[in-house]
């Protein structure tokens, strides 16, 4: 499961501009600011191979990275950015859905869920959309390093709540992993999981 090298391949504004789908591919999906780009950096142990920001809406294009010259990991723009214009939001859904309908080599979507906040409707909508389209998903809970702050709940309580809500929608619960890009929690587990999925 070791990552020896990672190479940025290209940014694409449209699904049809993506690199040829001739290798196993994982897509990182989730709300704006959930930590998609940070997770990618943490997986490949590079600080800024993917650009991150405190402000939501940083990643605007479909970014392909080639790992060990053999498989792709894709950093996608986030959804649910409240301040994005209606037009930008429409755009998000059309181009992301375009991406999903065009990638025959997609092994799984890593659907990132922020464990530091209570379950969000938009994450269920996304997970249901993936389910309806038979796209395999692994839930990756992010920011698990964040402990109780103010009135908020702890990550493990938020995760439990999310799991209970999701359970009704699946005959078999999809795989899930707790992570933190700050502490590296879950990194090895996720890499192992991805290598197992690639070999099926
Ligand atoms: P968009 O590209 O805007 O969709 O966002 P993104 O999902 O790529 O998020 P990004 O990786 O840019 O991270 C957003 C913010 O969350 C940054 O300030 C990160 O430092 C922070 N962050 C990401 N992962 C973690 C984590 O595991 N723990 C903590 N505490 N902060 C994190
Ligand atoms: Mg990003």
Automatic annotation (TrEMBL):
Transmembrane feature ranges: none
This protein's UniProt keywords: GTP-binding, Magnesium, Metal-binding, Nucleotide-binding
Requisite cofactors: Mg(2+)
Domain EngB-type G per the UniProt entry, residue ranges: 22-200
GO molecular function: GTP binding; metal ion binding
Superkingdom of origin organism: Eukaryota
Protein family per UniProt: Belongs to the TRAFAC class TrmE-Era-EngA-EngB-Septin-like GTPase superfamily. EngB GTPase family.
Annotated protein name in UniProt: EngB-type G domain-containing protein
């Amino acid at each position: 499961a070791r990552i020896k090298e990672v190479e940025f391949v290209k940014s694409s504004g449209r699904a049809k501009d993506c690199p040829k789908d001739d290798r196993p591919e994982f897509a990182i999906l989730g709300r704006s600011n959930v930590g998609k780009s940070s997770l990618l950096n943490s997986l490949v142990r590079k600080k800024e191979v993917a650009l991150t920001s405190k402000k939501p809406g940083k990643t605007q294009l479909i970014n392909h990275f080639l790992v060990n010259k053999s498989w792709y990991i894709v950093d996608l723009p986030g959804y649910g950015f409240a301040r994005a214009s209606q037009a930008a939001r429409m755009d998000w859904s059309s181009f992301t859905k375009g991406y999903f309908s065009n990638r025959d080599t997609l092994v799984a979507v890593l659907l990132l869920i922020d464990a530091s906040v209570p379950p969000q409707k938009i994450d269920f909508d996304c997970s249901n959309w993936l389910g309806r389209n038979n796209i395999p998903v692994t839930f990756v809970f992010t920011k698990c390093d964040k402990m109780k702050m103010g009135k908020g709940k702890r990550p493990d309580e938020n995760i439990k709540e999310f799991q209970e809500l999701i359970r009704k929608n699946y005959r078999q619960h999809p795989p899930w992993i707790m992570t933190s890009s700050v502490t590296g929690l879950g990194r090895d587990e996720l890499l192992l999981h991805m290598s197992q999925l690639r070999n099926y």
